[in-house]
Amino acid sequence: MNLNFKHLNALAEIAIRAARKAGKHISETRPINVQHKEGGDTLASQVVTEVDQQAQDIILETLEPTFAQFDLALLTEESADDESRLAKDYFWCIDPIDGTLPFIESVPGYAVSIALVSRSGMPQVGVVYDPVEHTLYHAITGQGAFRDSMPWNLPEAGSKVRIITDRSVAAYPYCGKVATALNASVKGQGGAVMNAIWCLENPPACYFKFPKPEKGGGCFWDYAATVCIYNELGAIATDMSGKPMSLNLPESIYMNPFGILYATDSKLAQKIIALKETLS
User: Fold this and answer.
1) Same fold, 5-151 and 162-279
2) Which of 112, 113, 140, 274 gives the lowest tally of CB atoms within 10 Å of its CB?
3) Which CATH class is domain 162-279?
4) What pLDDT is recorded for position 78?
5) What is the structure's pLDDT at 241?
6) Is 98 annotated for ligand binding?
7) Interhelix angle 266-279/173-182, nearest 10 degrees
8) 82 HSE (CA, 13 A, CB side)
9) Is 33 exposed, middle or buried (0-12, 13-18, 19+ CB in 10 A)?
């Protein structure tokens, strides 16, 4: 099914409702049962709580009518990948709580993330809800980016570069070397979604992960919504070679072979890619 602007706007509104409902529940709930699941190679990628599943259930209940009406597939963190995303023209790509570790610790850095992605791997709609600040960000391909439903543009850039990243990445030697080369500060706290959003709120800023052989590096649902928002703002969201992120590959949902790069401007992105080549 070919989705036009009218369809995308309708689906964005439904995703916004789902994100707000899930975000409200998350903001009013504390986790009781913390478990570990198979995932990447960091603690942040392995912890899960009953609130993750509850938030997913809330989101799917709201999105349910869209699956049949628009012939959509589904990829979500708390359910097995049935690979329907490879057959349908579009799929919902959902992380009910990105940044579960900050959520467990009651510190900022977690968010609801919902994206609509084409079979080619291009995000068409991106919705992010921050339950801490109760702020909603969204974008629709070709129609701009919005903050709390108001048109959004990048704020004026400051003088010092910020690297905003995962705690595990902040501990890697390459992160420190890039920070030194850019004379940048480093903040390691949030999940992938809020790290990308915080960069947009605090330019010039960047969030990156170098490629690595180990499984991990985040999954499609960690990046799809914010890639859409970055694209609509004219910011940079690519893999570490500067190519568009491949967000619907058949062989793996993990991004570790490619790395990821978010930057608030192209010059900063180019510097990081060049540094990656010298440090690899």
Assistant:
1) no
2) 274
3) alpha beta
4) 87
5) 97
6) yes
7) 130
8) 11
9) exposed
| Calpha distance 143→186 (Å, rounded) | 33
When pLDDT is cut at 50, 70 and 90, the band that residue 65 belongs to is very high
- Residue 199 pLDDT greater than 70, yes or no: yes
- Backbone dihedral angles phi then psi of residue 133, each to the nearest 5 degrees: -95, -5
Predicted confidence (pLDDT) per residue in 131-179, tens digit: 999 999 999 999 999 999 999 999 999 999 999 999 999 999 999 999 9
H/E run at residue 209: strand 205-209
Which CATH number describes the domain made up of 5-151? 3.30.540.10
The three-state DSSP-derived secondary structure of 85-151 is HHCCCEEEEEEEEECHHHHHHCCCCCEEEEEEEECCCCEEEEEEEECCCCEEEEEECCCEEEECCEE
Domain ranges of the chain: 5-151, 162-279
Q: Is 41 annotated to bind ligand? A: no
Q: Which residues have CB under 8 Å from 2's CB, separation 6+?
A: 89
